[in-house]
Amino acid sequence: MAEPILQKRPAHAFSLPDISGAYAFRFNGVAVDPSTFLPYYIVGVGIFAFDGQGGLTGNQTSTITQIGGTGASQTVSVYSLSGTYTLSADGTGTAEVTFKGDMRGEKGSFAVVVVSPDRLLMISTGGTDEVTGLAVDEVVSIEAIRQTSASPTGYAG
Question: How many domains in the chain?
Fold first, then answer.
């Protein structure tokens, strides 16, 4: 069983404007192809731009590799992102994201937790392949860190 990672959060109430600006993110997890039921390992990086009013855009580059079987090869994909997000006063929320690229698209749903205005955690809660309309089973975790011009690396935290 994985040990929990705990981090103290600010005591104030959160609102949409707390999550605004560009956030660099990385993710990894497992996806299942809805047509073959084969599992794939997925990993990637990208940028989310939150507008502070519930809208988001961005881009990502990811690789996906079949786990086992004779078709195990790596595929690299680039996606543009658009969608919406919600945020409750306790710092929990949701995001609905459309991924467009490589002649297909997917829609993903995510649970969001604000660690601080500079750091978000997200996990996938479901998705749909826009070409087939089939559910996409994924277990993906995302860590996003706000980019700033004040830090030497360009990233907060």
Answer: 1
